[in-house]
Amino acid sequence: METIILNANDPESISRCADVIRSGGLVAIPTETVYGLGANALDENAVAGIFATKGRQPDNPLIVHVASVDDVKPLVSFIPEVFETLANKFWPGPLTLIMKKSDLVPSNVTAGGHTVAIRIPEHSAALSLIRASGCPIAAPSANPSGQPSPTKAIHVKSDLDGVIPYILDGGDCRVGLESTVLDISEDVPRILRPGGVTSDELAALLGAIEIDGTLSTDAPRSPGMKYRHYAPNAPVTVVLGAPDTTADYIRENMCADFAALMFDDYAFNHPNVVTYGDSTDYVAQAAHLFDALRKLDDMNSTAIFAQAPHENGLGRAVANRIKKAAGNNIVDLGKK
Ligand code: TXA
Ligand code: MG
To which H or E segment does residue 6 belong? Predict the structure, then answer.
């Protein structure tokens, strides 16, 4: 099968992709966070195709994408009190809400669990496709499991060429990191994955929230967080500390066949240095991180050093992805 990239602005592209979704197939779709690998969320066989195509562990549940708040009701057995406030404020957008599932949702979507993850994406092509398909769309990030998520149509092409019929090209993803996953199925809302909506924004609205030990490998509540992830082929070491100190450390330890992920304002001249934004510009870092990790991968280096931002605001999600890419292989200069 040849994988065709279709322009998401062309209504004909949307209807071709909707035909595929309705007939139980898979297409790659743009969202404001990352590209997703979508299928009819109510079709168990189509959903099984997502797991097979990504090589995804069956214990890792999927996010269901809908186009309106009304579409949520049939998918859940109970609407928590905070739901409406959160949906009004952050949807469409990069926030995924976990609630108790209804019987309508096939069990492979939720990996056999009693809760379902739902969000309304902001990208107009994703919304058009959900409406044209007439069903909710289950979509994990459109990368083989363990690899960096795709933020451009060409990333999906290089990962899934020949495996899916269409990639709907909606341009570069605005946010560039996956959605924040917030569990509202229990009394106190809990962030299971930091993402495009920050914990400060959620706390400002909700008051009490809990944050899961998202980097812990022992039984995190969001199953996806336990796997090494976003990982280039070469081992990554995160160097933590003040950016001038970490830049010095990387320069001193850099070998010819090493590569480095650095802030624009601290980078040094070396063919294998890839930058992803200024040290305090978390929005730019989020938007460029996954593309930068892919560039580093293409260099076939033997080891990669990475600078990571302070864990404030969106910086928390950026640092989380870099630490996951490093499998928690950290040099902390701040502690010396
Ligand atoms: O921005 C995003 O969220 C993107 C776009 C395509 O929407 N999707 C995405 O999906 O990142 P994925 O499958 O790569 O990550 C979904 C995360 C995983 O960590 C998974 O374990 C968690 O959400 N998750 C899904 N359903 C869950 C549930 N019922 N309970 C706890 N965690 C859940
Ligand atoms: Mg993913």
Answer: strand 4-7
